[in-house]
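Escalation from tier 1.

The customer reports that the assembly of two entities below gives different structure tokens on two consecutive runs. Tier 1 could not reproduce it. I'm attaching the input and our single run for tier 2 to review.
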Amino acid sequence: MKKLTPIIEWGTLLLSTGIVCFFLVVILWDLISKGASSLSWEFVSTLPKEGMTKGGIFPAITGTVLLTMITAIAAVPFGISCAIYLNEYAVDNWLTRIIRASIRNLAGVPSIIYGLFGLALFVQGLHMGTSLLAAGLTLGLLSLPYIIITTEEALRRIPASTREAALAIGATQFESIRDVVLPTALPGILTGVVLTLSRAAGETAPILFTGVAFYINNPSGYLNQEFMSLPYHLYMLSTQHQAIEEVRPLAYGTALVLIIVVFLLNLTAFYIRYKRSKNE
Amino acid sequence: MKLAAREKIDNTGRYLFRITGLLVIAILGGIFFMLLWNTIAFFIKVKPLDFITGTQWDPSGSPAAYGILPLLVSTCLVTFGAMLIAIPIGIGTASFLSEYAGKKLKNILKPIIEMLAAVPSVAIGFLGIVILGPGIADLTGQANGLNALNGAVLLAVMALPTIITVTEDALQGIPNSYKEASYGVGASKWQTLIKVTIPAAAPGILAAIMLGVGRAIGETMTVLMATGNASAFPKGFFHSIRTITATIAIEMGEVPYQTTHYYALFAIAAVLFLITLIVNLIGEYFVNKFRKYHSA
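Tier 1 run:
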């Protein structure tokens, strides 16, 4: 009995770890085994046909790519600038504490509430209507706190001596940040940005009322028009379509493409991080 | 470039950076104000007491009923179920990673957890429909397995990476001297973990759980796809439920602008916002407590 106890103890921990791995295996195995047969060049490069029961998902792919680009344009400069302020300029006073508390709270706000805020602010308030731009900006707001937090972490890792060296040879603080601090922190910042964008690319709730559409007859490239996106396409195909069983292979194909896009972004981030850790 | 010009750029930069910092407060304030404004507009038309104590959510009925209770109970039920699954598995996995796994195994397991965290919620919801749903239907003999149990399992999968990562950080933060003292009096590795390391890391673990709860409560797509969305008062794990988030997602697209129904959706969003805010504040309290306790 005494010999058995450690095995049982070990076993419970190993079991829970095994369950976690099992979840990922099930997700990947199911999507790959049933989605792979739907994947073809035609699937990713043509428009949907015959009420979504045939054809490809080209507009959904371009829609997601464009949406993520707008998200990046809106959130990245803003987020990095805010992180620079917090790490390089801000002193520890009540204002800074309020800014930090706001960022932490924004990170915890449910994504559907960002959707409502985007609807109220961009779609109705600023009269953008349901459009690619409104949805991109909404996702930008959602991404902002994550970009600030990861960028600040990257900046914090730069030793103070690096900044002092720049200041000592006569650079202004702005020059020291632009020419020394930012380039050194770049890999860390990029890792955070790419991971955040991969999250944004898979989000559905914030774009529900801000511009996504089930079917668009073009590659969804106009800022002021509605667009298709991969996650929303998957949602519609798997729950709202009138012939759900018939379009299931297409849904699997869409899910697989979505997962591939998200994982590719993640791998990029891992690669940047790996290279950085090797350099250090 | 002249020094005066460079200093001008330096000053402009400082102002620009500060403005972005202040804008962050404005965004949170904007969200808060939007929810408050529309909730007040709602309470002018519907009595707050009817909203809080109403057991029926039926905006298109006559008379329309705007009781938040069924939605709130649904949200709590599915989150509670998710935590029943995710907390033991999460703490177990974090303990394994922190106390038992070697460096090589860790280098395999950590990316697995990060990949799990990266799976979009809509893909997890999809698998709830195609794998878990039929599985539950076979077990219970129901027509489809779209119910609270399905949603709870999926939310557990989504909350696990957060719980594992934060719990592991907490366990790693416990000074080695604690464990050595425990080994010194003859405790085994397991006894040390259960009686010393986990209790010492308790505030950090509670913070992890709170973050997981926050994620589960605010999640929209998985519950929207996997729980069936019946608007009746929730009866249990084997029945269809309809959470606050799913209600907003379903009804916001169809409701006319500035009607009572429109305002009602902002009012339930305000309740959701308050709950996540409180959960996050509790989490933050424990994180700070943990930090203070161990730096002392």
